[in-house]
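worker-3 :: picked AzlC family ABC transporter permease
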Amino acid sequence: MRSIWRTLDRGLARDIGLVCLADTLVGVSYGAIAVGSGFPLWAPMLLSLLVFAGASQFMFVGIVASGGNPLAAVAAGLLVNARHVPFGFAVGDALGRGLFGRLAGSHLMIDESVAFALAQRDADRRRAAYWACGIGLFVCWNLGVVVGAFAGSAISDTDAFGLDAAFPAVLLALVLPSLKDRAARLPVLIGVVVALAATPLLPAGLPVLLALVGVVAGAAAKEPKPLEGAH
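worker-3 :: tokens ->
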């Protein structure tokens, strides 16, 4: 583990630190929103330790808090995290060789750690960036969730502090650059239309699932078809 920290240069460590700081604030908002929505104090903390996937955790809390079926919330979270399958192929060399190392590395596989790893050309730097970002975010996210959970138990209305807008704002910031790609616009548009159309008709949670299916279907429709006779 010492070799990982020695491999990081000052610039990379600074960038990872800034991401950790931002995710800490988002973790605070998640903990506060979860407890403010009626979840027990321990629930967001346990989810953060076992799941460690911000998008899925927010989605689960949002669906259940709005009256949706917990099973639908779990299914939506699994669909969102399905992107980790190609992530695993992309950064598999950074996870380590032993069983314990690969299991721990898989648990730390989130968008940020994968992005930092893929940005490195050297194998040692890729491994160092992956583990440093993953460990740093795991610690900072969970600390933020603990602080937010206790804050949520003291604050009766988290919406009044704008905490409800923190995670959507982060998601929007992440999604907007990808919309410059024409291939990404159709799946996103399909998902939005499906969610808006289904929300008045279906119980909470199901519109999200249908929207995710719409996104996948739209992405598949935009896949280039192989030429006839090509192998």
